[in-house]
Amino acid sequence: MRRTLQLAAVGTAAGGFSGLFGVGGGIVIVPLLVLWLGYEQREATGTSLAAIAVIAAVTAGLHALYGNVDFAKGVLIGVPAVFGAVIGTWLQQIVPVRWVTLIFAALLVAVAVGLVV
Questions:
Q1: CB atoms near residue 24 (< 10 Å)
Q2: What is the mean pLDDT of the segment spanning 98-105?
Q3: Which of 66 and 108 is assigned the larger pLDDT?
Q4: Sequence-distant contacts of 37-45: CB under 8 A, at least 24 apart
Q5: Domain that holds residue 94
Q6: Which residues contact 63 (CB under 8 A, 6 or more apart)?
Q7: By three-state DSSP, how is residue 95 classified?
Q8: How many separate domains does the chain show?
Q9: How many CA atoms lie within 13 A of 13 on its CB side?
Q10: For a surface tag, which of 37, 55, 83, 107 has the fewest beta carbons within 10 Å of its beta carbon?
């Protein structure tokens, strides 16, 4: 029961961040699954991606109701992103987990610095 509540808390946080900022998966779900629930990096990533499918569909639909979605540009971003996701998934399987974790942490720091500066 405790684990279920923890997963629900992770999902609630990810959904809130997704609706508010357009993020939630990698930035919220993965670190919480790894640090709070003890998931391995690869399992956390896969689980996050499964959750993102649901989160993205709902939040995109809600934003569309508010008129905040440019579907044509979304497709122009989304289609190439599929190829990037395939390459990224392949890379994650061959790069040591420690390196994946370090690269991910560096990306989060770089994004944070970029947003502040």
A1: 24
A2: 90
A3: 66
A4: 37/3, 37/6, 37/7, 37/10, 40/97, 41/97, 41/100, 41/101, 41/104, 42/92, 42/93, 42/97, 42/100, 45/92
A5: 2-116
A6: 69
A7: coil
A8: 1
A9: 16
A10: 83
Q: What integer pLDDT is reported at residue 56 of this predicted model?
A: 86
19-20-21 Cα angle (round to 5): 100
Instruction: Determine the Cα–Cα distance for residues 63 and 51; give it in Å rounded to an integer.
Output: 18
Residue in the structure block whose two tokens are 């993020």 = 23
Please report, for residues 56, 78, 79, 80, 90, the alpha-carbon distance to residue 84 in angstroms, rounded to integers and kept in the order given: 18, 10, 9, 6, 10
pLDDT exceeds cutoff 80 at 115: yes
For residues 45 and 92, the answer to whether their CB atoms sit within 8 Å is: yes
